[in-house]
Write a structure and sequence with these properties.
Order of helices and strands: HHH
Structural class: mainly alpha
Helix content: over 70%
Strand content: under 5%
Oligomer: single chain
Low-confidence stretches: none
Radius of gyration: 24 Å
Number of strands: 0
Number of helices: 3
Distance between the termini: 28 Å
Mean pLDDT: 85
Length: 101
């Protein structure tokens, strides 16, 4: 049971890391992202092509990976918590059986 608790704590730490990474990536996207389709829709013309950093590809990749990882970790953590609940219930039943005369 101790290993399951440690695993759950580790998963939660990874989820916190993913949340911080999402915040940082999305903050950077907000500051740097320039959408070519939106500019053309607004009839904004630029004299030259936009720099590649305005695509913020690394940040979008980071957000995508983080959401996929977060989904896997949440499902894993749910499974661990259900196992812990089952083991605790079994432990309580054993304790009640032992305490009865």
């Amino acid at each position: 049971m101790k290993k399951l608790i440690v695993a759950s704590i580790a998963i939660n730490i990874l989820l916190i890391f993913c949340t911080v990474d999402d915040f940082l990536s999305l903050h950077d996207i907000k500051a740097d992202y320039v959408s070519k389709p939106v500019l053309s829709y607004l009839h904004v013309e630029t004299s030259a092509s936009l720099p590649t950093w305005t695509d913020t590809r690394l940040e979008w990749t980071s957000v995508t990976i983080s959401y996929a990882l977060r989904s896997i970790l949440i499902i894993s953590n749910l499974g661990i918590l259900l196992l812990l609940r089952k083991r605790l219930a079994r432990g309580n039943e054993l304790a009640m059986c032992k305490s009865e005369p």
